[in-house]
Amino acid sequence: MRFTHSIALATAILFTAPRAQAEVQIPDEYKIGGFAIGCQAYTFNKFTAFEAMEKTAAAGGRTIEFYPGQTLSKEEPTLKVDHNASDETIEKLKAKIKKHNLFAANYGVVGLPNNEAECRKVFEFAKKLGMRGVTSEPSPDAMDLIEKLVKEYDLTMGIHNHPRQPKNPNYKVWDPNYVLSLVKDRDRRIGSCADIGHFVRSGIKAVDALKILEGRVLSSHLKDLNQFGEPHGHDVPFGTGISDIPAVLNELKRQNFAGHLSIEYEHNLDHNDIDAAQCIGFVRGYTTKK
Predict the structure, then answer these.
(1) If residue 164 lies in a helix (H) or strand (E), which one and from where to where?
(2) N or C, where is the chain less crowded by C-beta within 10 Å?
(3) Distance CA 258, CA 21 (A)
(4) What contacts 257, CB < 8 A, 6 or more positions away?
(5) pLDDT grade, residue 14 (50/70/90)?
(6) Helix 87-99 vs helix 116-128: crossing angle, to nearest 10
(7) CA-CA distance, 100 to 58, in Å (whole number)?
């Protein structure tokens, strides 16, 4: 009797326990050559969020990543895209996303302080839009809180890296080893938003950074730069710079990367539509040939 009861109890636990890594999966229809790829709306930060979606779709992108503070549309310049947006504004965003057949993959880079009310607004916003997760350079003392919310909302949180700041030793997330130290013992939905361009600006080879973060790369801001180790190096179309985008794509595939790639092209900001399209075309051509 005790043995039978034990089996029944174990079975109940098995089927009622929450699943690990159950975060939103990006449907295959939003993938190109096996990668979910589109634009970070910051690529078009001189335009509205509606225009960013239009430009992303025109460039051949299938995903969009929003950032906080962008004006919603020309027609409603007082409305902003952020986690303080009203439900009405969110519905307008969702309608525009649907119109252009995009997948709203992520939100960031957004602050996540050690303040549950503020962090909860961020996660609630992402959840309402059906996103996979959020991107942040969070307060280190907020990691316990973030882990709690990641589990509750079933979303990912990727730590983003900006370039090394030689005059600010307290800025550490430029270093993939430091990012790994923050996430390695946490829920698997906490990891890295690997900004390839900023690794290169910090003098780190992108593939080396990805290998350090293996298993924790949740998303990426994909960039090719014209210089290595130079803080002021600028974006160039994929395949024309020194970031070795083919090696990056190969490494991500080797790691069974399931996140999204955001083209974040911060050069030629008034007229970078063609550059973004060329980057997406490079990924399409490279991955479909393999």
Answers:
(1) none
(2) N
(3) 11
(4) 35, 217, 220
(5) very low
(6) 40
(7) 9
